[in-house]
Design goal:
The longest helix has 28 residues. By secondary structure, this protein is an alpha+beta fold. It has 16 helices and 15 strands. 39% of the residues lie in helices and 26% in strands. The chain folds into 4 domains: 130 residues, N Utilization Substance Protein A, Chain:P, domain 4 (2-Layer Sandwich), CATH 3.30.1480; 66 residues, Nucleic acid-binding proteins (OB fold (Dihydrolipoamide Acetyltransferase, E2P)); 76 residues, K homology (KH) domain (GMP Synthetase, Chain A, domain 3, 2-Layer Sandwich); 63 residues, DNA polymerase, domain 1, CATH 1.10.150. The radius of gyration is 36 Å and the shape is elongated. A hairpin with a 2-residue loop joins strand 8 and strand 9. Strands 7-6-5-8-9 form a 5-stranded antiparallel sheet. Strands 1, 2, 3 and 4 form a 4-stranded mixed sheet that branches. Strands 10-11-12 form a 3-stranded mixed sheet, sandwiched between helices. Helix 3 crosses helix 5 and helix 10 runs antiparallel to helix 12.
Length: 410
């Protein structure tokens, strides 16, 4: 009965970790075999009988009877006189099976057994969690904010599994409080030691794609395909969609009446501006659509270098570039082409780098960051707007404008 009582005391871990009885017994056998190896040098001559229904475990040691004084290996051999203490009719050469009580292993060994069992159950538990979440990679998952660190938010799901949402995987406008429910995709799952590290992301383009699947029935049903998603998290995104059914307008279906369908997605992403674009294999047309809301005059492609020169009217240039250069950057990522914006009449323009003798290089770079690389492109902008869009002082911008204006004065 002492074996049963000890096994029952070990079985408390089963309830804590929701591990099934059969698996627990398999782990127990492994743990006890390790203990036998340590105490007796080998477990080859031991039988461990596990009864998962009763929660019982028996250990039997098998030894061969040898003549008194001829025992060479006490673990595998037993003297005739010792054997006859078990049963008085044993003879030399016969096999003796003797039950080993757990208490015979000693108090220290039993304590070690318990620690080893805890370790093995945790290891098994972590393996199950790893496999579970590995299958969920790329899928949307919801968990609750447990505590907030400087570089990450720690979430717990309903099963108590820890999920990490690093700062660089969050949308810049994200703000969480303890107890908030947070949605994101399971971006990666790795084993660090024996513990799974589950990383969630809300900044990954795949999160936006999965939100389309979740919120738009035609995407979920496969009637509309999301061809590609590019994002600047919290700022702007472009989503190329297509339908193999000519009767379905993929853009209209995704946006909905007055934006009703996409509104929930925009709100989830911190009011991220989302452009939904009809996909096409016609690259000229695709680039034109990708640069929306700007209206393109003409496009010249170089397929070898994957560059596109796009001609626009001067008033369309700022639309094509977008705030902070976001629109043109995303259009390039969506189409796979590096896009150069040229203005109609650009042959009369002068590149900013030509003014490097009069204007410091770092100032020229500030203008380039927002897509302004020629004299006229700067002169077409409002000075107050340039102050907002660059890190330059108003007085500096006025000096640059004055220098550039001189170039075009008679």
């Amino acid at each position: 009965m002492e074996n049963i009582a000890l096994i029952e005391s070990f079985s408390e871990f089963k309830d804590d970790k929701q591990i099934d009885r059969v698996t627990l017994m398999a782990i127990l056998e492994e743990v006890f075999r390790n203990a036998l190896k340590k105490k007796f040098g080998s477990d080859d001559n031991f039988d461990i009988i596990v009864n998962p229904d009763k929660g019982d475990l028996e250990i039997w040691r098998n030894r061969v009877v040898v003549a008194d004084g001829e025992v060479e290996d006490p673990n595998e051999e037993i003297s005739l006189s010792e054997a006859r203490k078990i049963e008085d009719d044993f003879e030399v050469g016969e096999d003796v099976s003797e039950e080993v009580k757990l208490m015979d292993l000693g108090r220290r060994s039993i304590l070690a057994l318990r620690q080893n069992l805890i370790s093995k159950i945790h290891e098994h538990d972590n393996t199950i969690i790893y496999k579970q979440f590995k299958d969920l990679e790329g899928e949307i998952y919801t968990a609750e904010v447990h505590h907030i660190r400087h570089r990450a938010v720690i979430l717990l799901d309903d099963e108590g599994n820890e999920i990490i949402l690093p700062k660089d995987k969050q949308i810049p406008s994200d703000f969480f409080r303890k107890g908030d429910n947070v949605r994101g995709i399971i971006e990666s799952v790795e084993l660090k030691g024996n513990k799974p590290a589950i990383i969630m992301s809300r900044a990954n383009p795949l999160f936006l794609e999965k939100l389309f699947e979740q919120e738009i029935p035609e995407v979920f049903d496969g009637l509309i395909t999301v061809k590609k998603v590019v994002r600047i998290p919290g700022e702007k995104a472009k989503v190329a969609v297509d339908s193999y059914d000519d009767r379905i307008d993929p853009v209209g279906a995704c946006v909905g009446m007055k934006g009703s369908r996409i509104h929930g997605i925009v709100r989830e992403l911190g009011n991220e501006n989302i452009d939904v674009i009809n996909y096409t294999n016609n690259i000229n047309l695709f680039i034109t659509r990708a640069l929306s809301p700007a209206r393109v005059t003409s496009i010249k492609l170089d397929e070898e270098t994957m560059r596109a020169e796009v001609i626009l009217k001067p008033e369309e240039v700022s639309k094509a570039i977008g705030r902070g250069g976001h629109n043109i950057r995303l259009a390039g990522q969506l189409t796979g082409y590096e896009i150069d914006v040229l203005r109609e009449g650009a042959e009369e323009d002068v590149e900013l780098k030509e003014f490097s003798d009069e204007i410091d290089g770092w100032i020229i770079d500030e203008f380039k960051k927002i897509g302004l690389d020629t004299a006229k492109s700067v002169l077409e902008q409002d000075i107050a707007d340039l102050v907002k869009r660059t890190d330059l002082e108003e007085v500096t911008i006025k000096e640059v404008v004055s220098i550039l204006k001189e170039e075009f004065e008679e």
